[in-house]
Amino acid sequence: MKIGTFAKKFNLNTSTVRFYINNGLLTPDREGGQYTFDKECVSNMEKILKYKRYYFTLEEIQLLFFLEKASRFQDEIVLEVCADMMRSKRNHLIEERDNLANFIREIDKEIEELQTHAPSDNTPCGVPFLFIPYLYCPRCHIPLRLDSASLSKGNIQQGILSCECSYSATISDGIILCQDITEETPFRAFENVESVMAMKDQFSPAYRKLITKAYVWMYHRITSSLHDGNCFMTGPFTFNFVLEYMSKLGKNNTFIILDPSLKRIHKLKKYLSFRDSNFVFIVGKPEDLPVKTGTVDFFIDDYSTVNSLFTYNNFATEMISPLLKPGGEVVGIFTSYQRAPRSICNFKKDHPDFKPEKMTFAGLKQQWSCSGVKITEVKSSGTTTPGELHFPQNAQGEVIEVFGYHGKKSK
């Protein structure tokens, strides 16, 4: 039979069959420049698959084949060598079986312990009382009036924020609700309400690896100028960096968490309620943030500007930059689609008004610069591979590049 038929018989691809030929385990005849496989090849392939099921290595299988072919099992020494190899493999598999049994028991205990964990909502997580001096009207830039406030353990749980200019917001369940909010996220490109699951469910392992490398780089940029009591801001749309690195970012910090979706903020509030930091949860758009200018030490751009462009057709930098202190820092991640024109256009299916030509790092850099933030450092994490789909909109064969970037606001 020809190589294609032979490979199909054993549910293999032809490159695997050629691999075994090149390693001397299969010796088909050649007729007219093509391999022809006889009954001996079929028998040898069956043995190869059998030995692979026994977890023999390629080198061990080659030795077994050599001993059989050289002696036809007519030599007592050869028979004993083969038997010793089988005994050794058997003992190894028994040891592995026992180890696996122990691991299974340990995993069962882990499952039991996980099932005993119940979400705890004992700590009232609200707007910290000490944050009141930083609640400012985003239009008039004057302190907001707080009425009908209800406090619990130093946190504001209920209240009304108002300004003479007619701007208003409410505090409900410890969350600041601006006027323009949504129940579901307006960013439709990914199923990302469950933020800690987004990367696992939506992205390929290769893409996640690039993001992880960018996160590590971002973390080291932040730690170079950390001190206790920093004010961090992150959002909208993505929060995986903060969820992963929050415990490493020092003590006595305040985190301003922004998203237009009430559902997502409620989810994040549950994730973060047990953390030893202060949180200000805000539901609304960046232009409606009731936060005093010059409050934030670090803005963590965890795809926030990118996803804002998808959703609102702007990077939102002009709304975020005023909130940074003089010398405040921006640390972020950016995905370049310069080598993926069809992929970036696919996002229009979810956001018809999105303009793909805007999605360039040069464009983001310019927008930060116009807002007084100078990008000082850029680091590439690498590119994806063309042979697989890395996210739902990824066009076949196109690759993207992931960057980390760092910037500072002028003093």
Q: Report the β-strand fraction as a percent range.
A: 15-25%
Number of strands: 14
Mind describing the biggest β-sheet? 12 strands, mixed
As a whole number of angstroms, the C-alpha radius of gyration is 30 Å
Helix count equals 13
What is the average of the pLDDT values?
A: 90
Structural class: alpha/beta
Indicate the percent of residues in helices. Answer: 25-40%
Series of secondary-structure elements, N-terminal to C-terminal: HHEEHHHEEEEEHHEHEHEEHHEHHEE
| End-to-end gap | 77 Å
Q: Estimate the global geometry from the Cα principal axes.
A: elongated
Question: What can you see in these coordinates?
Answer:
The structure is a single chain. The chain has 411 residues and is α/β, with parallel strands linked by helices. The chain has 13 helices and 14 strands. Strands 3, 4, 5, 6, 7, 8, 9, 10, 11, 12, 13 and 14 form a 12-stranded mixed sheet that branches. Strands 1-2 form a two-stranded antiparallel sheet. β6 and β7 form a beta hairpin. The longest helix is centred in the first third of the chain and has 41 residues, at 76-116. It starts with a helix and ends with a strand.
